[in-house]
Amino acid sequence: MASYQAPKGTKDVLPSESRAWRHIEGIAHSICETYGFREVRTPVFEHTELFLRGVGDTTDIVQKEMYTFLDKGGRSLTLKPEGTAGAARMFLENGLYNEAQPTKLYYLYCPVFRYDKPQAGRLREHHQFGIEVYGAPRASADAECISVALDMLTRSGLKGLSLYVNSIGCPVCRPAYNEKLKEYFRGSYDKLCAVCKTRFDKNPLRILDCKEEGCKAIAAGAPAMLDYLCGDCSDHFEELKACLGAAGIAYEIDPFIVRGLDYYTKTVFEIIADGNGYTGAVCGGGRYDGLIEALGGPKMSGMGFGMGMERLLLVAELQGAKLPGDEPPAVYVATMGEAARARGFQLVQYLRGLGVKAEFDHVGRSFKAQFKYADKLRARAVAVLGEDELNKGVVKLKRMDTGAEREAVFDDVEAALKELLK
């Protein structure tokens, strides 16, 4: 038993798992390049005020889940609980709004931290893949972001995907809707949880996002925002549906998607995976046309999504997606005797310089044990160097699955190996 264990809600990525991570990350890079998104990386922690203003002080994230601390200068800092606020701060601080718009960004190496009950696919520290689009007010940008998400999930091997969309209005039409919500919830106020009671006056829309069963049951009959959209929001939603239809993207309208962050306006969406032991959201996002302005910047539209990498890999594995494991070495260099050992190390370095994945004994195993270890590594071939080979100036190559052998001079080993492994 180890003396120390990883903190609750965190997870190590083991050597046997890392290649699957790189595979998924490679898909994300490829898709974003195709769609014209550029990568950014932001700090792991930000000033707490950024999340209070950006994410919203009535959200579960701010009220229950943030890791906040004082640094040695007495400043309040927070480990980022999501990626958008940090990306928006970067966009503003570096004056990217002065460039020709839209600005299309993505982040992949983005650890986020939320104090929540750990469960399958939801960790206290997890990693997000997300995209952000600034300065693109038309609903075609919403459809493009949704398309990126679906491409990512599909190419990662996920099946049984369903897209759900909604509009939650804007500052023009939402106040009237909030009053309708208050009228609806007022009769059940005493039955709401303590958190939702605080939301009743400040942001009743948040009540629709509560995970408490009692609140969910009450909210089930609440009026829908779609019935109270202003003309601009209604037109935007119609354009979104038209773009999705033109692209052949199937969707369903869910009037109770509100997302868990206060900065959302107009379009919100979720993608659900269903099958092989998992049913739940694998991606969510939406439009946040007021966020940049709320953070002190110019009036600027925004749209994006975030998806958890751990959850993506979990669902892919449950659904039987073919994710790559460790790649075996092409050749293991086995030596007998000290003179051959030095020559063998020279050979393994020579092969690596040519891009051949090669391994070598650093433990001091016997010649027989080296072969056993090569088999454990699943090496496709063994390059043998002993006294006889040194005297003859050759390397003996042996294919592990068939036992086929051939000899080659040092400089011809790569070509002979390729021929042997055909």
- Overall geometric form: elongated
Q: What is the CATH topology assignment of the largest domain?
A: BirA Bifunctional Protein, domain 2
Tell me the β content. 15-25%
> In terms of structural class, how would the helical and strand content be classed?
alpha+beta
Question: What ranges have pLDDT less than 50 throughout 5 or more consecutive residues?
Answer: none
By CATH, the architecture of the largest domain is named 2-Layer Sandwich
State the end-to-end CA separation: 45 Å
- Write down the domain tally: 2
**SS elements, strand count:** 16
Explain what you see.
- This protein is an alpha+beta fold.
- It has two domains: 15-173 and 229-318, Bira Bifunctional Protein, Domain 2 (BirA Bifunctional Protein, domain 2); 331-420, Anticodon-binding domain (Rossmann fold, 3-Layer(aba) Sandwich), CATH 3.40.50.
- It has 15 helices and 16 strands.
- The chain has helices at residues 15-35, 48-54, 60-65, 84-93, 139-155, 174-186, 194-202, 213-219, 231-246, 291-294, 309-318, 338-353, 367-376, 387-392, 413-420, and strands spanning 38-39, 45-47, 67-70, 76-79, 103-113, 125-134, 161-167, 252-253, 265-275, 278-287, 302-308, 331-335, 358-360, 381-385, 394-399, 405-409.
- Helix 12 (338-353) links the parallel strand 12 (331-335) and strand 13.
